[in-house]
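Can anyone check this?
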Amino acid sequence: LLGKNNIQYAEAVMYRTVGNEFGKDEKLDYDMLIFFSPVGVASLIKNFPDFDQKNIKIATFGVTTAQAVRDAGLRLDLEAPNVMAPSMTAALDMFIQETNKGK
């Protein structure tokens, strides 16, 4: 419609992140949880209000997601991107190498 009327426009791809619903029997026996948006952190808290982090590592991509983890009172173990690792895969590789030193 806009093009037919010679109106300039630019297309934009939009998306909406939504949380998953987990059953009461869902086990959180993961080594690491990785969040790419604050909605993921909110979903964790909503689905597991008594979540006890213990030895589970938490990684985030982006400053707002990292802040959401801190605001939830959780320990942030890996934040990407950073100066040494511009991607989550690079950050994970460095984290694993550092964690496995001396083993």
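Reply from J.R.: I decoded it. The chain has a mean pLDDT of 92.
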